[in-house]
Amino acid sequence: MLERIYTGFPKFKLKDEQGIPKDKVKTFPWIHTPYMKRGLIGIQYWEWLSEEWEWIDKQVIDKYVAGKINHPTILIALSGNGLHAGKKAKDNNGYFICDRGSSHIRFQDQILREEYARWGFTFRGVDPRVIEKEEIEYEQADRITIPSEFVKQTFIDQGVPESKLSKIPYGARLERFYKVAEPDTDKFKVLWVGNVCLRKGFMYALHAFQNLRHPNKEFVVIGTVESEIKQLLIGQNLDKVFFLGLIPNAQLPRMYSTASVFIIPSLEEGLAMVQGEALACGCPVIASVNSGSEDLFKDGQEGFIVPIRNPAIMTDKLVQLADDPALRDRMSVAAIECVKSMGGWDRYGEGFRETLLALVEGK
């Protein structure tokens, strides 16, 4: 069904993506690629420059694609990137789908402002120009595709009609992620994979682990530690907490497979794909309701779904798994079966196909 993909990434970054005909990929890397590499020259800390660069990036790719549309088509654009191209598609008797991978942008801005303030930091906030552009896109789009019930509810709460929303949950790459080993029965290992930041609720996970009484526990943290967390870690008890930084993706299946439990208490996310990766490797998940977890697994069956900002409840769930290895084993088996039943990413593809056909058929 695909006619073309336009991306700001260079082609070599897409060499591992199988099944996409290379002649359908058109790159425009002149703004986005240097933006992604800005950390190499140390300017990622110049917030005003990063903000301006990101804004220009979104505008340039949007207008570039708009210039390429001259016939009826369905444009699917990541939110914040499709205002001009979406209008051009509709002007050519086509359709515009705004694909939003996170919560409604106003909810996202508000909850992050609250969270930063709780820990004594000032959140710069989402660029007001980006908020304005995205909300115009929400209004202009024929459909808004979203990955989870949590995200859907944030849009409804902001006044977006439910009829405009198409929920299509993400999947997991079963060819990359599957069980390759067993956890050490003499050790209770809690695993974190992803950015170590306030948005993902890292400090709540750390406090839950600190409060866990276990003679042989570990907290393995994989991902880049953001500056706010580095400040908050000063003076913390980090005994048995191991920060590994970034590791090659090829090592992740073993990390998931040998962990006792995976934890992700995000304040807001569309549908954290690391959950599907963990489940595919037979690792039970403790996730917040704001991580999109309800669209991946059932509470108490493949893991536990918990409220945000509640380390005490997370500690209780850790205790349950640590004290009852049989429960952990049942959840591990259920996790693998759950992800297999989704068919990897096939369910996502079928969901998008149905959305596209319903759109052109006027349903």
UniProtKB/TrEMBL annotation:
UniProt keyword terms in alphabetical order: Transferase
Keyword Transferase attributed: yes
Protein's organism: Larkinella punicea
Protein known as: Glycosyltransferase family 1 protein
CDD domains recorded: GT4_PimA-like
Entry-linked Gene3D superfamilies: Glycogen Phosphorylase B (3.40.50.2000)
Source organism superkingdom: Bacteria
Gene Ontology molecular-function annotations: hexosyltransferase activity
Ranges of residues in domain Glycosyl transferase family: 181-335
Signal peptide: none
